[in-house]
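How a chain folds remains the central question behind the approach discussed here. The record that follows shows the chain in one-letter code together with its fold in token form:
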Amino acid sequence: MQTTEKLIKQIASGSRDAFSAFYDELAPTVYGIALRITESKERAVQVVKKVFAQVWTTAPSFDASRHSAFYWVMDLTKKFAFENESKNEQFNFFAYQESNSAGYNLLEVMNKIDEKHRRVLELAYFRNLTEKQIEEEMNIPVGTVATRLRLAIKAMRPILG
């Protein structure tokens, strides 16, 4: 199996096969996270479409030195899932876990990562807080927030497959 970064390079060159492999690898995770954030199957499907349309059109400008392809796709997922959502709405993670249909239990996955990393991930992705807001809430430097978020995502990658 090719790495997501190699697939992105091939997508940038117009490879439909690479795009298909990239989609097959990440679409279930994108859908699961989008569904948790939006709490709507229809909106989650729209998020998946937007994320992968963005991947197809912007793959040539992807910079692997800035972040991993997985992190980039997760960031796009968050961006599109929260698009047009009220800033005051909070995602009810535990209520959604009861109706999980994404093929894995995100709560179980998140429980396998370090508590300090999990907390930052929860605040960023499920409460839609910025790194600055997380810094203030957790009373830690913004650089530490960014590092913990990156490490949380890195720790989840092998678990999610």
About this structure: The longest helix spans residues 16-38.
